[in-house]
Write a structure and sequence with these properties.
Elements: H1 11-14, H2 20-27, H3 29-35, H4 49-63, H5 67-79, H6 99-108, H7 114-122, H8 125-135, H9 139-153, H10 157-168, H11 176-184
Helix pairs in contact: 4-5, 4-10, 5-7, 5-10, 6-7, 8-9, 8-11, 10-11
Length: 193
């Protein structure tokens, strides 16, 4: 869906909040600014972030998790990419100004549980580990980055995996990182939707 900048739709017409916390997030001016940012690009042919969020939320619906997991996945989906417009793009990369760090800081003001904040912050880490391992051919560094992610998630790897799958099965993203993750990480319950 392309954004008509003269007559943009209302957020509530695109995303139906399921609770008071989601309503607060969708009304936050910081969140709204990021939601409308973006043009079609590789991995995100939908353009504006809000349309990507819609796709991730649709995947969560297809996944049909229990209510607690659903609530957490939706919070991650609503915030994970909303601060790409603030991200540092220079070289060397300033990882403290990565969109996921901005998203975590934003979500912290809503008293979201730490393990959910961790997934928001780390949501791209499995992709980066895969890219280092496969694209750059540095298996040792890629494996180490994946192990660091698993350790940092401190037992919440299943929540991360479910979000990673919902996020990656959108737009025109390659599915190779998810397949690699599923074949490499032990102890996750594989899912299809």
């Amino acid at each position: 869906m392309n954004l008509d900048t003269d007559h943009p739709p209302r957020i509530e017409d695109l995303i139906s909040p399921e609770n008071e916390l989601e309503q607060q997030i969708l009304a936050d001016p910081q969140w709204l600014e990021g939601a409308w940012w973006g043009k079609p690009r590789w991995g995100h042919p939908e353009g504006a972030v809000v349309y990507h969020i819609q796709e991730v939320l649709d995947n969560i619906d297809r996944l049909n998790p229990n209510p607690e997991i659903r609530k957490n996945l939706r919070l991650i989906a609503l915030t994970h990419d909303n601060f790409k417009h603030l991200e540092h793009k220079g070289s060397p990369r300033d990882w403290s100004k990565h969109h996921a760090m901005f998203a975590r800081t934003f979500a912290e003001k809503y008293n979201i549980e730490t393990h959910v904040l961790d997934v928001i912050e780390l949501h791209d880490e499995a992709y980066y580990a895969w890219r280092i391992y496969h694209k750059n051919g540095n298996k040792e560094e890629g494996s180490a980055r994946l192990e660091q992610l698993i350790k940092r998630l401190n037992g919440k790897i299943q929540l991360f995996y479910l979000f990673f799958k919902c996020d990656t099965q959108t737009g025109d993203k390659t599915q190779e990182p998810v397949h690699w993750f599923e074949s490499t990480v032990k102890g996750i319950q594989l899912t299809k939707f």
